[in-house]
UniProtKB/TrEMBL annotation:
SUPFAM superfamilies on file: DR1885-like metal-binding protein (SSF110087)
InterPro entries cross-referenced by the UniProt entry: LpqE-like (IPR007410), Lxx211020-like (IPR058248), PCuAC_sf (IPR036182)
Signal peptide extent: 1-21
Assigned keywords, A-Z: Signal
Organism per entry: Alkalimonas cellulosilytica
Name the record gives this protein: Copper chaperone PCu(A)C
Length: 147
């Protein structure tokens, strides 16, 4: 069962990242998604998990996308009992570990879509790391959760 799900995960990743040029060979990304902006909104969030297969801690320092005017690295923090989003300079990826960007925590904040964004399409993401390496990904567009 486990072998089967790993196999399925592997093929899903291959499908999601067909042309991924990955000079950052020791970093691997999965579960790469961007939410379709809510109607009338020009900002949305993106999530992914980064695995560090090296023995050195690494940092994600910047993300760009041709599909958005600007992408920021954000986290959530509690300020006076309220959840607030704040921009961060970098996201740590521990040595031989991983970091997950997910709702309520670290995330990508994507501003001003440059094209129409529809569910099941994908948008490119270009990730830059602190050691000068970089990674090109395709993020799957998903609908935001209903409230
Ligand atoms: Cu944010």
């Amino acid at each position: 069962m486990k072998a089967l799900s790993l196999l399925l995960l592997g093929s899903a990743l291959f499908f999601l990242q067909p042309a991924a040029a990955v000079p950052a060979a020791t970093i691997e990304a999965d579960e790469v998604i961007v939410r379709v902006p809510m109607p009338g909104r020009t900002v949305t969030a993106g999530y992914l998990t980064l695995h560090n297969h090296s023995e050195q801690a690494r940092q994600l320092i910047a993300v760009q996308s041709d599909a958005f005017a600007r992408v920021e690295l954000h986290t959530h923090t509690h300020v006076d009992g309220m959840m607030r989003m704040v921009q961060v300079d970098a996201i740590d990826i521990p040595a031989a570990g991983k970091v997950s960007l997910q709702p309520g925590g670290l995330h990508l904040m994507l501003f001003e879509p440059q094209q129409a964004l529809e569910e099941h399409q994908s948008v490119p993401l270009h990730l830059q790391f602190d050691d000068g390496s970089h990674m090109q990904l395709d993020a799957r567009l998903v609908m935001p959760p209903r409230r």
